[in-house]
Amino acid sequence: MMKDYIIKDINLAEAGKQRIEWARRHMPVLQKIKEQFESEKPLEGVNVVACLHVTVETANLIYTLKAGGANIALTASNPLSTQDDVAAALASGGIKTFAIKGENEKQYYECLEEALKIKPHVTLDDGADTIALVHSKHQELIKDIKGGCEETTTGVIRLRAMATDGALKYPVIAVNDAETKMMFDNRYGTGQSTIHGIMNATNILFAGKTIVVAGYGWCGRGVASRARGLGGNVVVVEVEPRKALEAVMDGFRVMPMMEAAKIGDLFITVTGDISVIRKEHFQAMKDQAIVCNSGHFNVEIDIPQLTKLSKEVNQIKNDVQEYVMQDDRRIYLLAEGRLVNLASAFGHPPEVMDMSFANQALAVRYINEKGRTLKNQVYRVPAEIDSRVAKLKLEAMGIEIETLTEEQDKYLHSWTLGT
After folding, report:
1. Chloroplast: is it a keyword of this entry (predicted)?
2. How does pLDDT run across 278-288, given as a tens digit for each residue?
């Protein structure tokens, strides 16, 4: 029998409800979609498993899907990102919720297994763990699944690899790749919330420090620009030539991690890859260097190697571990190498997640309606959804944009007009 919830404390619900309401007021686009969903019920009878960060913003997405008629089971996509009061608020409102901040790996997958008992028609992921578990252990569920949605870069990478190998057994919408998600969520959301998490954990001054940002995708761009805005001397480490060139043209120093390791005061990884900071880099770092990660999984910093290099490990404050090297240098790891912006702060602001989750809600509707007609591939968010979210956001901000005249429209769509 499926449980109703696995959470820390149902008595935290009232505090969670108040914070969810605060976020709702800053998510006008999602509220417009919720109103439409309440009227049209496009998800009536649809079972949805959502493996997402359990935050106030996610709660508003869940309420939007529920308004559309969906039956939902929510589980955490990261052991340290759950806000326990939000989980309690959702559980008290009848949402099947399985998430506790600080759960270990065994508990994490027990919660995901519990959520899958709902037998989903649509899956929502932030990191592709639901899809991976379905494909590896619960292939009997695939016949009823119309499709899924993936929220983050790391998950999209995993899923495209599955599709290339012919292993993906149902279609997935890469919500991450919507322009109104990728450029805004990844750049403005990750940029601000990562700095917020580091400040919460350490209270360090950025001005005058050498900040090493590994990765110059949209997340790296956001982190680098915010760190520079606070007075940091930013170094970018990048493997892709075009992104590295862009970082140079944006005014940042670019170098290999081995060189950056010698001069960095603070290291922030946002690549989606494994062992970005590893043994040789730890050995080259200055005393009191700080390392943290804002990529989805805690693999970007090679923590096992850091541990082996250390003669002592101390928990010196919340979210800060001190690794004492054999030569008495100290390296500080934040938030156990997990998402520092969620583990040590609140994650992205609701104004940013408004667009991300608007795309998510509309993509769920699209999958429910079109999933059976799609191939087992990873698809971009349809352009009309992306454009609609942008328009709704502009309207919510009170901003009007120009419109083409008939003459201008004709000129742009004709090959016979010119000089």
Report:
1. no
2. 999 999 999 99
